[in-house]
Amino acid sequence: MLEPSNNNQLPPIPGKRYFTIGEVSDLCQVKPHVLRYWEQEFPQLKPVKRRGNRRYYQRQDVVMIRQIRSLLYEQGYTIGGARLQMTETVRNDNKISKEVLRVLRQELEEVKALLSR
Questions:
Q1: How far apart are CA 44 and CA 84, in angstroms?
Q2: Is 13:28 a contact under the CB 8 Å cutoff?
Q3: How far is it, in rounded angstroms, from Cα 98 to Cα 92?
Q4: CATH number of 4-116: 3.40.50.720, 1.10.1660.10, 3.40.720.10, 1.10.3720.10?
Q5: Sheet holding 48-50, edge to edge
Q6: 54-57 and 48-50 beta bridge pairing
Q7: How far is it, in rounded angstroms, from Cα 4 to Cα 74?
Q8: 50-104 residue pLDDT tens
Q9: In what helix (H) or strand (E) does residue 56 lie, and over which residues does it extend?
Q10: Cα–Cα distance for residue pair 98/79, rounded to 1 Å
Q11: pTM summary value
């Protein structure tokens, strides 16, 4: 397993749509039982489950797991602290998304006004 300070040395994420738990384990250098535990602790982490309860992770899940790994192993957060940090990140992303949409809508209304002249 990599040292905690070497999170940037993780292998690149391939351009696949779905990843098995074994592949994610290799990509994030975290054992499968840890991934299953994190699914219980972080509500944002919800892999798709198919036949026989097999987990299939998407790219955004792998990125999120790497963020969780960084918070826990590099930055020294507890599970509760990392959960709170991930929740704050989601809230901030939502605020930024709303602001981007507001500006985009305003610009589109200006374009509409110019075209209607």
A1: 11
A2: no
A3: 10
A4: 1.10.1660.10
A5: 19-20, 54-57, 48-50
A6: antiparallel
A7: 5
A8: 988 899 999 999 999 999 999 999 999 999 999 998 888 766 666 777 777 888 8
A9: strand 54-57
A10: 29
A11: 0.71
CB 32 within 8 A of CB 65: no
3-state secondary structure of 37: helix
For residue 69, the tally of other CB atoms under 10 A from its CB is 21
Domain ranges of the chain: 4-116
Residue in the block written with tokens 């610009």: 107
Q: Encode pLDDT of 27-39 as tens digits.
A: 999 999 999 999 9
**Residue 103 carries which side chain, given as an amino acid letter?**
V
**CA-CA distance, 29 to 23, in Å (whole number)?**
10
How buried is 18 (Cβ within 10 angstroms: 0-12 exposed, 13-18 middle, 19+ buried)? middle
- 3-state DSSP call for residue 85? helix
